[in-house]
Structure formats: C-alpha cells, structure tokens
Amino acid sequence: MKFLPTPLNGAYTIELEKRGDDRGFFARFFCEKEFAQAGLETRFVQINTSLSGKKGTLRGMHYQLPPAAEVKVVRCLRGALYDVIVDLRAGSPSFGKWFGAELSAENRTMMYVPRGFAHGFVTLTDDVEALYLVSAFYAPEAERGARWNDPAIGIEWPVEPAELSDKDRNWPDLDPQFHGFELMRGA
User: Fold this and answer.
1) Where is this site: Participates in a stacking interaction with the thymidine ring of dTDP-4-oxo-6-deoxyglucose (predicted)?
2) Which residues of 32-43 are buried (b: 16+ CB within 10 A; e: fewer)?
3) Which residues lie below 8 Å from residue 128, measured CB to CB, with a gap of 6+?
4) What is the pLDDT tens value at each position of the chain, 187 positions in all?
C-alpha cells in the first residue's frame, strides 16, 4: 500500500500496490504491519457498507465525540463518490480545513480518516457501494454532524447533492466558538 499524505494533518489517501498477471491482480486492502509502520490505526471493530442508488446522494458530514471518536478507512467498491473530510481537532495545524478526493471502483483509492474529523461523501454515479473499516463502535449519544453546505467550512462539492436524509440536511452550522470544534479537544 502507498500512504499518500493529504493537506490535512494525519489524513491520507491510500493506493493499492497491485501485483498482477493475465488473470487480474492481487492487492492488500489492509495490513496491520503496514498501517503500524505508517503510524496509523490498526484496530478496527466494525466493517460497514453503504449502498446509494442515485447520483447526487449525500451522506455526511458525520463524526463521533470522544471517547467514541473513530478512525475510518473508506473505499468505494462500485461506482464513484467524492469523499470529504474536515479537521475538527482544536490545535491541529489543519484545523477547520477540508479535503476531498474521488474514490471509485476503478481507481481503488481509499481515504484514511483520523479521529476528530468529520466525514461524508456525495455519489458521482448511480448505484454506489462503499465499504468502511471503523475503529470504534457506533455510539448514537456521541454522534454529531456538520451541515454539508456550512459556509464556515466551504466544501466545494463536484455535484449538487440531490438526495439527503433529514438528519444530514438538518445538522447545524459549525460555529468554531460554540458548536462542535471545541468539543473535539483531545481527539
């Protein structure tokens, strides 16, 4: 695997190192030894999947507060999506900044999302399936979110989201002084 740093401190895109022949290829999706050598999380307690039927489906921007803050490794298995992360860690050099990358079945790129980051995506095609490795169990009491079009964050989505859950549509704006940023201290 190739761990490529993003502009956000501690976040990476991960490219597979394919070994192939005329039958196709073989590559590691996860290797505890390689993740540990890169200084990344190696313990994952859940593997989740999502299926989004329509282009323009938005899921996010989600995070969990400590002690339930989680690391995610996200990969698109079918179709294509634009994956976005936002650094909510107070004191981080990239605090309040966002990064996005296309993940697709074709490019097989993955996103490593550290603790203390909001995460979400919008689908770029119909019938998108994503797979997530997650380091902490889902804790509804710790779940929070940021609005996908919060002007304080300023995410530039490549397509206008057309399908959103009520929950994702109604997350509050993240006011850096009052609504969430300060809650991620110690994440």
Assistant:
1) 138
2) eebbeebebbee
3) 51, 52, 57, 76, 78, 79, 80, 81
4) 999 999 999 999 999 998 888 998 898 899 999 999 999 999 999 999 999 999 999 999 999 999 999 999 999 999 999 999 999 998 899 998 999 999 999 999 999 999 999 999 999 999 999 999 999 999 999 999 999 999 889 999 999 999 999 999 998 877 554 444 444 544 3
Question: Two tokens at 183?
Answer: 């809650």
User: What are the residue boundaries of the structural domains of the chain, listed by start?
Assistant: 44-184
State the residue for tokens 């900044």.
97
Q: Regarding the domain with residue range 44-184, which homologous superfamily does it belong to in the CATH classification? A: Jelly Rolls (2.60.120.10)
